[in-house]
Amino acid sequence: MADKIQRCLSISDLQARARRYLPRVIYDYLEGGADDEECLAENPARLRRHKLRPRCLVDISERSQQVSVFGRTYRSPFGISPMGMLGMVRQEGDLALAKVAAQSGIPFILSGASNASIESVARHAPGSWLQFYPCKDLAIERDILARAAGAGIETLVIAVDVPLHSKRERNIRSGWVRPYKPSPAVILEALRHPLWVARYLRHGIPVMENFLPYAPAGIGARELTGFYASQVPAPHQWSMIERLRRQWKGSLVLKGILAADDARLAAAAGIDGVIVSNHGGRQLDRSVAAIDALPEVVDEVGAHMTVMFDSGIRRGSDIAVALSLGARLCFAGRAAAYGLAAFGAAGAQRAVDILCTELDLTLGQIGCPDVNALGLKFLWQARAGLP
User: Fold this and answer.
1) Cα 262 to Cα 258: distance, rounded to the nearest angstrom
2) 77 within 8 A of 67, measured Cβ to Cβ
3) Do β-strands 273-276 and 67-69 pair in parallel, antiparallel, or remain unpaired?
4) Sign, Cα dihedral of 318, 323, 325, 326
5) What do you get for the CA distance between the two ends of the chain, in Å?
6) What residue spans of 118-249 are helical by DSSP H?
7) Residue 382 — pLDDT band, cuts 50, 70, 90?
8) pLDDT tens digits for range 341-364
9) With bands split at pLDDT 50, 70 and 90, how would you rate the model's confidence at 184?
10) 279 classed as catalytic
11) What is the pTM of this model?
12) Which candidate in 50, 203, 236, 279 is catalytic?
């Protein structure tokens, strides 16, 4: 298997492998976006429209990707985004990605819709972050936050870009709809992916462990997803953020900010950081591409809080572009998930290594030996004139 992994030279190669391994219903859940998926396509496309401008005759014999965020130092300026129900991609997928991130010295954000529990991830990968979807039942909300603090979670990421469940037509067509009972057509297609089917039959539907303590006793894994959906999303208001700020003593981040006004309100509410993101194109299909929203957020609050970026990263050069536009840290989700699907933990590690290597080459090619020195001088037409 090692040879097969090494022959994957890019994230696209891992994506092709993931598509062969996964049944269509699971691949479409992982890959799909909202409505016509225009936003899904625009995220990487708009990143690629930004061109890097090399600076010549610079000593690049030593290059560093090291960055410090919220009191922790990371080996590279990117982490793994939160992704729900990774147990359907690979058994214990959350834990696999958390361990890979910890071994690689990069941050991992556990999804609010994960299969692995907060406690297990914190135990196996100390320093992991937690994404949190506010719940309708405030008692559940308070208990989850208490569990996170007790497990040693230092950074809480509030997802503010899911006020409603979106319309993901690809998922509906392929059969990923509650209560997740596969149709005969879905079963027949899945049989073309025997390795995945064998693992599924051995382990069954993964349980959303974080919500199991709050659901009715004896509830099954399939019904538990319905219980989760009854709690999330909760009504989104700034009063909710103020309440969570009072409850959470660690670093607090809002994920899904796309407007300077919202970033300013977040800073006023005492938020420590924002992640400029459109949920990977999975929520609002007519949303602005995340990279196009990044500069105005940086201009508004970059001097006062940590601005990060997510949505569309497929190459190490994408990370260099986002950092040059002012992001302090980037997150990639699907890239790691492709590797996880294709080869398990070893594939996820390959995805991280590919991005690290590509970023290192980019830094050398543009004459920037330290990622902390990236800025607008390394971009051509960074702020205006893009078609």
Assistant:
1) 8
2) yes
3) unpaired
4) positive
5) 43
6) 118-124, 138-151, 169-174, 184-190, 194-203, 221-231, 238-247
7) very low
8) 999 999 999 999 999 999 999 999
9) confident
10) yes
11) 0.96
12) 279
